[in-house]
Amino acid sequence: MPALYLKTYGCQMNERDSEQVAADFLAAGYSLASSPEQADVVLINTCSVREKAELKALGKMGMIMASSGAQFHTVYGIMGCMSQSLGRELFRELPRLDVVIGTQRYHRVLPLCDSLLKERLSSPIVKPMRRGAQLCETDPAPRSQDLIRDHLPPHGSCSAFVSIMQGCDMHCSYCIVPSTRGEERSRPMKDILTEVRSLVEQNGVKEVTLLGQIVNRYGREEPLVEGRSAFVRLLEAVHEISGLERIRFTSPHPIGFREDLVRAYTYLPKLCSHIHFPMQSGSDRILRLMRRPYKQAKYLELCHAMRAARPDLAITTDIIVGFPGETEEDYLLTRNAVEEVQFDNAFIFQYSPRRGTPAAEMPNQICLREKEARNHDLLELVNRIATARNAALVGSTQLVLVEGPSKTNPDRLQGRSPQNKPIVITSGSPIVGSIVPVRIEESTGFTLYGTAI
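The structure corresponding to this sequence follows.
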């Protein structure tokens, strides 16, 4: 039985895409290898949002190819955003690379790799230092949103990602995603609902996360129905699926975030009390340079409205520091916004120029030392706020979806609250996949500890 090794970098969308590819290989009779040395096909699903992510993927594949355990017949492939961005350039970086697959061609990964592997295994002579086959497919696929197929979440998982759309039309000045993921395309609602029902009925999934580059723009070409957007109607339809306990979605954009979505938090109890809501900057001037078409006052208004609709709502965000032209005053506006919203967590990134984006050519690029200083200062503030918000939960009872053994102590179980707080269960033996009340007894940074009641 041939084996596949698949390594994934980047966002939840990449994780979901990898699950679909893995399901295709399993259906074709492959097994999943725990290391590249055990595999006949080695794939890396890549991210291009930041340069560091690309370098990690290239370094990983280079190390695998150079490993003493590498087999001569092994097929090596790179897929995802870096493939879409660089295409055939990757063959110059990695001469032994065989396959490069873009973001709209995941359905082609299995047939390309499988036919190449069979060809090599049938050949009587294999040269140790053979160059790669150099098969590259990055052309857009017509109606690629219809090619999103059912997938297998990780074995035993009670949560699953569900893609509801592809691409992005916003063209933020720093972002490479529109060129790697293509234009915005929404998946038919019936296909989404069929997939969610299958995950619940056949895989025992209790929680789904709906995915999109800008998830709240799902079906934006459709007319409103009684004041409700297509995305809110999708949430309502998913909410009706029997056996499903929790719904999450990521990531929304302030543009198109309407009152009907805020109101959904008042009448959809399965909708979790957590939203990841990218802010990027607290300065209107920097937001304009970023081509983020909203003002900070609108962003803050939405945060307050959501917490009014769902008082226990946890809000997390993305922030970029050191964007070209960012002054100390601009940075302090961002810092002030963090203090006002009191985020439960924030992912803070130093601005990283990406080829082909307008921001990479902007004047007044910020030096690395200043970016690092702002990153460190803001991270300290975010950690202080998050630690205090978690400490306030000690003594409370939280409903926890039990996901499996703790990563740091396999003798304990861990799960997440509706607010997406990681919680380690220190005593009690609940069943994995169940939702149980846990009394919180301790908080250390971002992790809570408690006893299953």
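The longest helix spans residues 368-391.
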